[in-house]
C-alpha cells in the first residue's frame, strides 16, 4: 500500500491583512513553511519595528515527544539579529532559524547590469558578438606566470604512464554533446578500433611527458544563452555556455580520475567538503547537515546557519595560487606542470547568430565546460576551512558554502558567525 504524506502550508504574504508585513522597499514577496499534516503548528506574532524591511515567518511545531520553533527570514538588505533578539530570547523551546540573508560583498561579485553598450541598443550582429567577447574577457587581465618548480619528488601514481583501459573508460564516459572548436564529436572516438586507440594513447603519453597542451585544447567557443525570465536587453541576462574539445576532455578525465583518487585516499580534502569527489555527492552533504541539526536539537541548542554563494566562482580563481595549492598535497611534476600550462593563455570566441567574434585571451580563472575544472576548484577551496572560528562548522558543496554554529547562547553564535564572516572577507 502506498504511503502518502500531506503537507500543511503556513504562508506569510505581502498584502495579507491577517499577517504583519515588515517590508518597506517593495510590494509582493512572501514566505512559506510546509509541515506534515499530522503535526500541529501555529503562527507566532512578531512585534518588529515598522521601519524594518525584514520578512519573518515564525511557527511553533508540537509533537507528542517535543515542541520546537521554525523561523524563516528574508533579509533583502542584510540581516541584523538585534531586530529580533527580543523575540528569540522569549523562546522556551529549541528553534531552527533559516533564511535568505542576501549578503552582498565584492568577494562574491558585484551587481553589474549595464545595458548592451552604454545604455544604448546595438543591432549590428558583429558589434554584438564582439561586445559579448569584451564583456566576458574584461575581468581577465594579462600577467606573467610566477616561476614554479614542479620537479620535486611526487606521488608516483599521479605521474604513471597512460593505459589503454583508462583511455577506453574515458571514451566510454564522454557525453555526446555539441563538439568544440575542432568539430570532432564524441561518437568519433567511440567508434575507433583498438589500433587507433593505441595511437591516441601514444599521443597522450607524449603530451603528458612534455607538459604540452595543443592550442585547440585551450580554445573555447562561447554561446550566450538568455536566462529564464530575464531582460534580454541586459548583457548580464545571458549565461555563457562554453564548447571545448572532446579530445581534450578525454585526456582531462584521466587526469581528474588520478587526482580525485589521490586526494580522497590521502585524506587531503576536508571531510566537510563535498561535490565532484568520490562518495562526496549531494546526498552525503545533506546527511552531514541533517546530522548537525539533529545534534543541536537533541542538545537543545540554538542553530543558526549562513549560506554563501560565490558568484562567478570559476572566474575568480587565481591560477598561480591554485598551482601552489596543488603542490602542497604533493601534486607535482608533470601532472602539475601540464595543469598549469592548460590554464594559462587560454582563448575564446563568441558564437552569435551563426558567426564568430574576434579571439579574446584569458589568463585567469578556470575554463567553463572543462572536465578538470571541478576538481581543481575543490583544491582551490580546500583552505577555506582555515577561516572558520572555533565552534563554527562549515559545509562546502562545490561553490556553495554553509557556515553554521550551535550553542546555548544566541549572542555567542552571533559573535562567532560575525567573526567568521570577517575572516572570509579578508
UniProtKB/TrEMBL annotation:
Domain of life: Eukaryota
Keywords, ordered alphabetically: Nucleotidyltransferase, RNA-directed DNA polymerase, Transferase
One GO MF term: RNA-directed DNA polymerase activity
Record flagged with keyword Hydrolase: no
Domain Reverse transcriptase, first and last residues per copy: 206-426
Classification via InterPro entries: DNA/RNA_pol_sf, Endo/exonu/phosph_ase_sf, RT_dom
PROSITE patterns the UniProt entry points to: RT_POL (PS50878)
Pfam families in the cross-refs: RVT_1
Keyword Cell membrane: no
Identification of the protein by name: RNA-directed DNA polymerase from mobile element jockey
Organism: Araneus ventricosus (Orbweaver spider)
Higher taxonomy: Eukaryota, Metazoa, Ecdysozoa, Arthropoda, Chelicerata
Amino acid at each position: 500500500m502506498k504511503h502518502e504524506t500531506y503537507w500543511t502550508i503556513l504562508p506569510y504574504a505581502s498584502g495579507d491583512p491577517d499577517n504583519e508585513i515588515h517590508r518597506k522597499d517593495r510590494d509582493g514577496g512572501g514566505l512559506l513553511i510546509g509541515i506534515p499534516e499530522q503535526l500541529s503548528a501555529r503562527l507566532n506574532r512578531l512585534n518588529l519595528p515598522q521601519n524594518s524591511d525584514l520578512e519573518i515567518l515564525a511557527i511553533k511545531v508540537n509533537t507528542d515527544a517535543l515542541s520546537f520553533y521554525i523561523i524563516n527570514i528574508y533579509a533583502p538588505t542584510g540581516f541584523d539579529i538585534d531586530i529580533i533578539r527580543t523575540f528569540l530570547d522569549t523562546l522556551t523551546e529549541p528553534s531552527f532559524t533559516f533564511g535568505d540573508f542576501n549578503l552582498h560583498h565584492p568577494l562574491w561579485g558585484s551587481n553589474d547590469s549595464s545595458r548592451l553598450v552604454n545604455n544604448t541598443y546595438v543591432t549590428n550582429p558583429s558589434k554584438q558578438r564582439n561586445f559579448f567577447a569584451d564583456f566576458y574577457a574584461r575581468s581577465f587581465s594579462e600577467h606573467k606566470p610566477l616561476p614554479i618548480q614542479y620537479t620535486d619528488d611526487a606521488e608516483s601514481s599521479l605521474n604513471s604512464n597512460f593505459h589503454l583501459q583508462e583511455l577506453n573508460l574515458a571514451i566510454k564516459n564522454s557525453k555526446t554533446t555539441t563538439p568544440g572548436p575542432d568539430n570532432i564529436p564524441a561518437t568519433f572516438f567511440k567508434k575507433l578500433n583498438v589500433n587507433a586507440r593505441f595511437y591516441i594513447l601514444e599521443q597522450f603519453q607524449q603530451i603528458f611527458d612534455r607538459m604540452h597542451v595543443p592550442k585547440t585544447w585551450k580554445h573555447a567557443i562561447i554561446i550566450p544563452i538568455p536566462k529564464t525570465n530575464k531582460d534580454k536587453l541586459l548583457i548580464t541576462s545571458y549565461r555563457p555556455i562554453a564548447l571545448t574539445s572532446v579530445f581534450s576532455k578525454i585526456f582531462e578525465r584521466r587526469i581528474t580520475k588520478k587526482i580525485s583518487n589521490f586526494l580522497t585516499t590521502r585524506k587531503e580534502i576536508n571531510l566537510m567538503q563535498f561535490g565532484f569527489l568520490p562518495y562526496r555527492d549531494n546526498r552525503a552533504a545533506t546527511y552531514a547537515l541533517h546530522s548537525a541539526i539533529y545534534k543541536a536539537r537533541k542538545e537543545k541548542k540554538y542553530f543558526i546557519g549562513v549560506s554563501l554563494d560565490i558568484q562567478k566562482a570559476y572566474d575568480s580563481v587565481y591560477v598561480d595560487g591554485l598551482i601552489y595549492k596543488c603542490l602542497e598535497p604533493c601534486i607535482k611534476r608533470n601532472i602539475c606542470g601540464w595543469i598549469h600550462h592548460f590554464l594559462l593563455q587560454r582563448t575564446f570566441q563568441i558564437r552569435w547568430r551563426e558567426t564568430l567574434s574576434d579571439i579574446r585571451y584569458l589568463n585567469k580563472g578556470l575554463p567553463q565546460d572543462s572536465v578538470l575544472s571541478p576538481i581543481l576548484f575543490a583544491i582551490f577551496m580546500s583552505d577555506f576551512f582555515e577561516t572558520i572560528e572555533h565552534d563554527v562548522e562549515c559545509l562546502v558543496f562545490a561553490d556553495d558554502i554553509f557556515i553554521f554554529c550551535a550553542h546555548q547562547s544566541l549572542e555567542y553564535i552571533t559573535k562567532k558567525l560575525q567573526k567568521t564572516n570577517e575572516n572570509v572577507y579578508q
